[in-house]
Structures are given as structure tokens and as C-alpha cells.
Write a structure and sequence with these properties.
heterodimer; A: 151 residues; mainly beta; Cathepsin D, subunit A, domain 1; 7-stranded mixed β-sheet; 3-stranded antiparallel β-sheet; 1 helix; globular; B: 83 residues; alpha+beta; 3 strands
């Protein structure tokens, strides 16, 4: 079984030349739950094949029950904000398309960079799925692969 | 733990995508550039703010558990993403 997520449509204020004059942009954004020791947050995240890690904004950590003070640290480089620290912690991620649900333990990064939404990158997310981006149907299909560690 | 020291389980999102996809784009456009919190069934916006942190403060003040809201950022209509 696969999870199927229609692309989210973002409305625009002028016809999009590069998309044949349409008035909306399709985006591979999906709802993801991040589950910590004491709570859960649910947010829209970007399926990002260009991101090495799965990264969330740092302000989510404490309410989830995650102490980052002694967490392993790394660095990320963003297109517009330069180099920024990332602290790593273990959580569970959960996704559902309303039909099927997947839930797995994973290391994710937390960064002080003010992300508008989490980046669902290779480590922790895309590594566990075969992801098919259907440009024609504007939907993405995620099928768990042999690395998937969850339920 | 939440203020009452009771763990709240992840919300039921089984109807979120279906309902959220029906949310009118012109209504959503009113929140351009804002962080918004939807109900877990995707039918309603609970609160909005300029930043995610501010949104959490508003939800807290309203007594809405942070775990029971779905966060989204509504992009301004004139921005494109190039990473």
C-alpha cells in the first residue's frame, strides 16, 4: 500500500508564465506529526529531495519534551541564511493520507533558523520511502521501502 | 507535559486532508504571509500570527493544546521558492 498526497495549491496574484498561465502553484507539502516524550505537534512539511536531513524549527523542541542542551550538533547551509547549527534528537514521525498511517522512530534536526515549515529531507524521511512525484496528476505517492523502521 | 500534566495523544487527522482540500483558496488568501492553526479535522482556522512562535502563544492563551492544532504557513501570493 502507498500513501497518496495531492499537492497543495498556492494561489498567486498573477498568471504563472512558466505554468501555462495558471493561477496556482502545486507544492509537495504534506501533514506530518512529530511526537516527542511529552507531546505532539502537527504541521505541514515540505518533501524536499534537496535536503540532506529532516529539520524542524528549534522552538518546537521544548514543548515536545526534548532537551537539546546536550544534543549532538551539526551545521546546515541554507540558500538565504548561510550556515546555521542543527541539534539532533530522537522523535517519532507519523504521516497519514486518511487511509493508511505510518509511524517511525527517527533522528531529526532542530534549527534556530526561522523555517516556515519543516524540511522533510533524505535522512529520517525520504530514505524510508520510494517517493513518486506525479507531475501530471500533481500528487506524490510514498511507499515504504526495506529501510523503513516503523509500523 | 501540558499544563495539566496529562499527555494528550496525537489528534485524529483522518479527515484533515479531505476537508482541508475544500477550504476556499480566497478565504485562505486573507492569511497570506501568516502562520495559521487549523482544527485537526481541517475545517476551520483557530488562530493566525506573523510567526510560528507567536501562533503558539495565541493558542496557549486560548487554552488550545498545541498538539491539537495543525500548523501551516500561508505563503504570500507573489513569492516563489528556489532552493
Amino acid at each position: 500500500m502507498s500513501l497518496v498526497f495531492p499537492y497543495r495549491l498556492k494561489s498567486v496574484n498573477q498568471p504563472i508564465l512558466t505554468l501555462g498561465g495558471r493561477w496556482s502553484r502545486p507544492r509537495p507539502l504534506i501533514i506530518v506529526s512529530i511526537i516527542g516524550a511529552s507531546s505532539t505537534r502537527v504541521t505541514l512539511g515540505l518533501l524536499d529531495t534537496g535536503a540532506d536531513d529532516t529539520v524542524f524549527p528549534q522552538h518546537l523542541a521544548a514543548p515536545l519534551g526534548i532537551d537539546l542542551s546536550n544534543a549532538p550538533i551539526g551545521y546546515m547551509r541554507t540558500a538565504n541564511l548561510g550556515r546555521a547549527p542543527v541539534r539532533y534528537a530522537q522523535v517519532r514521525l507519523r504521516i497519514t493520507d486518511g487511509v493508511e498511517q505510518r509511524d517511525w522512530p527517527v533522528w531529526v534536526g532542530f534549527t534556530p533558523v526561522p523555517l516556515n515549515q519543516p524540511l522533510l529531507g533524505f535522512a529520517g524521511f525520504l530514505q524510508f520511502f520510494t517517493a513518486t512525484f506525479h507531475g501530471d496528476y500533481e500528487k506524490v505517492e510514498l511507499t515504504v521501502n526495506s529501510l523503513y523502521p516503523g509500523t | 507535559m501540558n499544563p495539566k500534566n496529562v499527555r494528550i495523544e496525537p489528534p485524529d487527522l483522518s479527515h484533515y486532508e479531505e476537508n482541508r482540500s475544500k477550504f476556499p483558496l480566497d478565504e485562505l488568501a486573507k492569511y497570506a504571509g501568516k502562520h495559521v492553526a487549523f482544527t485537526p479535522d481541517g475545517t476551520r482556522i483557530l488562530a493566525s500570527a506573523d510567526t510560528w512562535e507567536e501562533l503558539d502563544v495565541l493558542l496557549d492563551a486560548a487554552g488550545i493544546p498545541l498538539s491539537q492544532a495543525v500548523h501551516e504557513y500561508v505563503e504570500p501570493p507573489d513569492e516563489i521558492w528556489i532552493f
